[in-house]
Structures are given as C-alpha cells and as structure tokens.
Amino acid sequence: MTRFARLTLAFAALAILLASPPAHAGKSDNSLVFASDVVPESIDAYFNNVREGVVIAHHVWSNLIYRDPKTGEYKGELATAWRWIDDKTLELDLRQGVKFHNGDGFSADDVVTTFNFVSKPENGVVTQQNVNWMAGAEKISDYKVRIHLKAPFPAALEYLAGPDVIYPGAYYMKVGPKGMSEHPVGSGPYKVVDYQPGKLVSMVRNKDYFKDSPLGQPTIDKLEFRLIPDLNTQIAELMSGGVDWIWRVPPDQAKQLATVPTLAVTAGETMRIGYLAFDSTDETATPALKDPRVRRALNMAVDRDALVKSLVGEGARVIDTACFPAQFGCTTEGVTHYGYDPKKAKELLAEAGFPNGFETELSAYRDRPLAEAIIGYFRAIGVKADLRFMQYAAIRDLARAHKMPIQYTTWGSFSINDASASVSSFFTFSADDLNRDPEVRDWLKLADTSTDPAVRKENYKKALDRISDQAYWLPISSWPLIYAYSKDLSFTPYTDEIPRFWQAKWQ
Amino acid sequence: MFTFAVKRLALALLVALTVSLISFFLVRLSSDVAAAIAGPSATAADIEAIRHHYGFDRPLPVQYLDWLGHTLRGDFGDSLYFRKPVLGLVVERMPVTMTLGAVSILFAIALGVPLGVVAALRPNSWIDRLALAVSVIGQAMPSFWFGLLLILYLGVTLRLLPISGSDTWRHFVMPAITLGYYATPAIMRLTRSGMLEALSADYIRTARAKGLRYGKVVGKHALRNAIIPVVALTAVQLGFVLGGSVVVETIFALNGMGYLAYQSIVQNDFPVVQAIVLTLSAFYIVLTLAADLLNAWLDPRLRAVSGA
C-alpha cells in the first residue's frame, strides 16, 4: 500500500470517529421526540383512522368539550356551556378570544363550517362513525351554535370531546382536506411547523394558546413525531437518546428496558378489549356454535387469569363483558362469569351432542401466542381449532361471509367512553353482527338513543346479561399499553390511548 | 450484435409483460379489492357499489387490459391509503431507494473486489479462506439480523452513526453496509475466479518477464481483464439490492420505495403494490438486459451461442 493510501485511510477513520452524530437534545432544549410505527395517511383529523392521527389531532386542534380523563367530567374547551334543547338539538355557548394558529379568530362560523362539511358523506370523511350522527350545525349568533342530530344520540358529547375537532372554517374551505393535511392550522396547544409525509411531524408550543383551556398550558417547547417502523430500531433510538418516548413495547422487551437506568417503563390499561367472537348464525361454518351449551363450554375451557398473567401482562384485567368496564353503560352486574372449568366444559359438550369435540377454525391478526394458547385450551376439551393468522381486513371479509366461525380480535372503541362504541358495534344487526339476536338489538337501540341515563343503563345491562348468558363472545381481558421513555420525563398514561404531551414536562 | 440486441429486448419486454400479469392477478386474487377500498365499516351494499363503480365486476382479462392501458400512459391510479396519485408517491420515494442502492453497490464493490484480488493472489491461503468465510456469512446471514447488529454496536454502544432516518449521508452508512454485504459474495467470487484465470494467462507472464512492477501487473493488466464480467454482474446485483431495500428501509426508517412497499402491503393498498412491483421489476429487467448486452459486446462468443 502506498503512503498516500495509508494516509487517506487513516484520515477517513479519524473523520468518522470524530464526527459523532449530533446528540438529540431533549431535556436540554426542552424538546421531546416521540416515535411510532404507523404514519397517518393524512394529518387532517377526519381523513385518517390511525391512533397516531388521533394523537396529533389532540395536540394541534381543539374540541368544543373536554372530558377530564381523571374524573370523567365534561368541561368546556372551545365551548363554555351547553344544553339539550330537545333530544336531537344540542346548543353550545362558545368561548371568546380564542385564535387559530394563523391568527384567525374563532367563532360560531368555524363550528358550523367544520361540522357541515364533515357530516356530509359525499365529502368522504374516513371514520364515518365519528360524524354520521350529525345532521349539521346552525349558527345562532357569533358565539352560539346548535348541533342538530339525525336521531337521539346521547354519546354525542363523547364524540364532541373526542374525535370531532374544530377547524378554522375559512381556511379549511380554501385549502380543503389536502391543504389542511399539508399545512395544518388549528387552535390547540401545539402548532405544526414541518410535515414530511411518511417521515415526521414537527410541532412547537403555541405561545398564544388560550389561558382558560381545561387542558392547561403546555411546557415542552418542541414536539417531534417520528416514524420508525421497526420496534427494535425504536428501542435502539430510545437507548441511544435519539428519541425520548415510545409505546406498544411488548412485555418481554419491557422487562429488559426497565433495567436500563436512563429509562422509565410504565404499563397503562387501555379501553381496548380482547375477545373471541363466535358465529352462531344459521350460516355459520361450524354448526356446533349455534348451541349455547357449546359456546358456554368454550368459555369455561380457557383459563383467562393464566392468559392475562403470562401473555397479556401488567395493567390488564380479565373481563366478562362485551365492553370496557369503565365505559358508560358497561356493567358487570348480573353478567355471567365463566370460571375455568374444563371438566364442566366437557360435560356441556357431551350434553350438546359433541362428546368427542369437533373441528373448527380460529382466526387472529395479532397476539399470535395468545391465539395459540387458546387453541391449546380448546384442544384439551376435544375441540380442534385450526389457526388462520392473517390481516384484519381479510378476516373481516371472511367473518362477514360467515366463513370464519371463531375470531380472536380486539376493539378499542375509538377511545369513546360509552358502551355505544363497543357492544352496539357488534350486536345491532350490522355486517359485523355474527349472532343476530333481536332482543339484544332492540335493547341496544333503546340504550343508544335514549337521553335518560337510567334508561340507557338499564337496557345496556339487559343486553350485556343476555350476551354473556348466551356466550356469544368469550371476553378475555382489557389490553395494557406499555410505554418506555426517558427517566427525566414526567409522563402520565390514560386509558384512552392518547398520550397527552401537553401535560408532560422535563424534570 | 444488432440481432442479438433485438432478441434480448423482445425477451425483456415479454418478461415485463409476464411480471405485470402475475402482479395484477396475484393482487386481485389475494383479497377483495372493493372491500379494501370501501373500508372496515362498509356494508355489503357499499362494497357492491364500489365494485361496480371501479369496474371490478368486469372479467379479469378486461380489467387487466384496462389497467395496462393506463399504466403505459403513466397512470397508476390513486393510492387507497394516501389518497394521492401513485406515480407521485413512487417518484417522491425513489431518490432514497436509488441512493441506498447506489451506495450499497459501491460498498459491495469496495469490499468484494479487493477481497477477490487478494484471495486470487494467495489461493488456498488463510487470506483466501477468510475471504471465503466473509462470502459465506454474507450469503447466509439474514439482512435484518445484520442490520440490527450494526444498530446495536455502531449506533447504541459506540454511538458512531445515526440509527434511523435519511437526513444526511451518515444515515446511509449502516443501511448501505447491510444491503451491500448481501451483494458482496458474488462480486468477490467472480473477481477471484477472473483474477485466477487472468494471472495464469500468457500476457501476464510476458508482462512479468518484461520486468513490470508486480502491482502494475496485477492492477493494470490482470484486474482490468478480470473485472469485465464483474461489471455486468454488478448490474444484476443492483437489481437484487433494490428488491432487498424493503426490509432494510423498514429497519432503518428510510422513507423510500421499499418502505412504501411494506406499508402498502400491510394496508392492502393494491395500486401502490402493483406500481412498485412493476417499477422494481422494470429496473431489474433493464439492468439484466444491460448486463446481457455488455457481456455479448465484450465476448462475441455469447452472441453465437444465442444464435445472433
């Protein structure tokens, strides 16, 4: 090797060694980088259906109503007061002096423009469930609006406090959903300063955020959402200081991360519930499932406590209901609890005419070890289930065509704290109703549309009791979410799976 | 040569057509595309309306010809997930993938050629065995595993290089090593065998007898002749590298076509999946054609074998 070549190599090595990557600042410059594995297809809150989109929306835009996650109490955010004029008309008084990030003042026009646009199906809002309860909005005065409902819908407040955010009307009509996604403008605690599709969203603290907001005032100056598809890469970035916060850490890796002195690991329960759904219709691919004794046997065959302890993890609890226990209307009173009793399960199967069990299929799109464990429990009582592990959309198609008799699946209720977002999604004769029980349907329709809380609770109770008595589902547990972040960060998780970075601060 | 080129071009077009057929039918047969467009909360009536609106109820050959016609005009349709023209999405992501591909192949050449030369100069020695070991490991080790090892040691432990993203040239170092290492063995082995053949040739013996420096004999005379088939192989390896970018871009969070392919498959975004399969196949076909033509130009015997 020539002298020149040796010198060149040495210089290159030195250059690489000396030019270390710039360390991410985090605490020192009051910024926070959080990473996830999914990027919203659009930043516009009404045109994406991923959790990350919901998280960004809660930081960039404001709602009319705020639900306090600790107390469950509804407080005014962009609204200061509200009242039901009748069971299909909600009138709200609006807060004065709020400005959007582009300087436009907030008024009734913005509420009316936003809701009249998103409530029209032809405008193509992706999550129709969030908006299709609205008939439209009407301006009463500059700071008073009425929202008209298509039908009585008591969960309206929950949606107004959740996914239904308010846009600057004039700006939105000018730029449309595409423009709003490319250059988001809201009135929230953070404003977007850089958006690179498929890569990152950078936000800075809104210094003009209205002082009376029930959210409080944010303290972290800069937020950056980064897309990192691979979990191992996320963990590597967290350990090297490249990011400050990640979530959805699997329990086994959480244990290892908890030993890293610079990191904190927290498990928080979420509204997501995991369950098996049995197709008990006449078209079911496994006729045995039409017999409630068979379904009850399957419920008794699974040791849910053991499953939760070993496979679901800390923060989860066994559930007996077709809803998340804290949701309004979700009650365990009178609900049948099926304990782990494989002997009794076999007796029930024999009584139903299947002393030697039967064959069936079980689908799953996630949590494969859990699905396999359940199959093992079934096998112990003679029921041989073949696992079909595939994409959610493919399973949904098969189930709707009655070609998938048992599904292991989960449901997050879009973080809506009302039973109408969980149990009613599956038992009111929609495409996803695999049981078609008219009594349950009628009780749920009454519960979903009554504005009397007592009537709602009574009818949800009746429906949930029958669902558990008939064992239409095998409810398993709530799902925890494990967060890992820098130890210097003060962060509190909530059950709605919405990290509130406006509350976080560096210690 | 002209006849050979025309025949190869015709074959390349046939391959491209076959790939388009396979990718089209595989996507249509793998899932209900109307349901994918309609979304999770759609009713059966909604899905049927969409099926009719997009023409999915027509016979598959008719759908294929319609799709082919649009594709040839550069219209790949709109992404179901991003709701943007597919062509725009693919073009937007292409620079990252091309950069990664180019840097990876440069790494493969920078590692493979010197290793091959050294192995040929000392056949059956420990250096030769070491080069072989490097080659075997490169072929056998999964790229995602190698990538994670690099992240662990160079990113987390030593903090020498950034772990994810594509903002600077330094972000491409680990991904390029990961991807390039997979292409290295073939280049190394071909260089080695080419060098062994060249070093035993008469003109090399003559050059040494004339008293030329050893380095000049190896570098100027032997390597120059041995490297010719490696150039053609590199073109083919570039095609493999582009295909392997799906995994590497996902691990290193590079916003390229490979990651777009991964996202699209997960989201059932079939127009994007089809477009990417077609684009990467087209690249590979063009590179293979270029390699064939280059080889035939350099070695006329190949033209005779193929009947040109």
Describe the structure.
Chain A has 507 residues and is α+β, with helices and mostly antiparallel strands. Chain A folds into 2 domains: 45-224 and 494-506, Periplasmic binding protein-like II (D-Maltodextrin-Binding Protein, domain 2), CATH 3.40.190; 270-481, Dipeptide-binding Protein, Domain 3 (Dipeptide-binding Protein, domain 3, Roll). Chain A is built from 14 helices and 18 strands. Chain A has helices at 3-18, 51-60, 108-118, 156-160, 169-182, 231-240, 251-257, 292-301, 304-312, 342-351, 368-380, 392-400, 438-449, 453-469, and strands at 31-36, 65-67, 74-76, 79-86, 89-94, 134-141, 144-149, 190-196, 200-205, 222-227, 245-246, 263-278, 358-364, 383-389, 406-411, 473-486, 489-490, 505-506. In chain A, a hairpin with a 3-residue loop joins strand 8 (190-196) and strand 9 (200-205). In chain A, helix 3 packs across helix 5, helix 8 (292-301) runs antiparallel to helix 10 and helix 13 runs antiparallel to helix 14. Chain A is globular and about 70 Å long. With 308 residues, chain B is mainly α. Chain B is 78% helix and 0% strand. Chain B contains 14 helices and no strands. Chain B has helices at residues 2-30, 33-38, 44-53, 60-72, 86-121, 126-140, 143-157, 173-199, 202-209, 214-226, 228-251, 257-266, 270-298, 300-305. In chain B, helix 6 packs across helix 8 (173-199), helix 9 (202-209) packs antiparallel against helix 10 (214-226) and helix 11 (228-251) packs antiparallel against helix 13 (270-298). The mean pLDDT of chain B is 84. Chains A and B meet through helix 6 and helix 12 of A and helix 7 and helix 12 of B.
Topology:
The complex is a heterodimer of chains A (507) and B (308).
Chain A: H1 3-18, E1 31-36, H2 51-60, E2 65-67, E3 74-76, E4 79-86, E5 89-94, H3 108-118, E6 134-141, E7 144-149, H4 156-160, H5 169-182, E8 190-196, E9 200-205, E10 222-227, H6 231-240, E11 245-246, H7 251-257, E12 263-278, H8 292-301, H9 304-312, H10 342-351, E13 358-364, H11 368-380, E14 383-389, H12 392-400, E15 406-411, H13 438-449, H14 453-469, E16 473-486, E17 489-490, E18 505-506
Parallel strand pairs in A: 1-10, 13-14, 13-15
Antiparallel strand pairs in A: 2-3, 4-5, 5-7, 6-7, 8-9, 9-10, 11-16, 12-15, 12-16, 17-18
Chain B: H1 2-30, H2 33-38, H3 44-53, H4 60-72, H5 86-121, H6 126-140, H7 143-157, H8 173-199, H9 202-209, H10 214-226, H11 228-251, H12 257-266, H13 270-298, H14 300-305
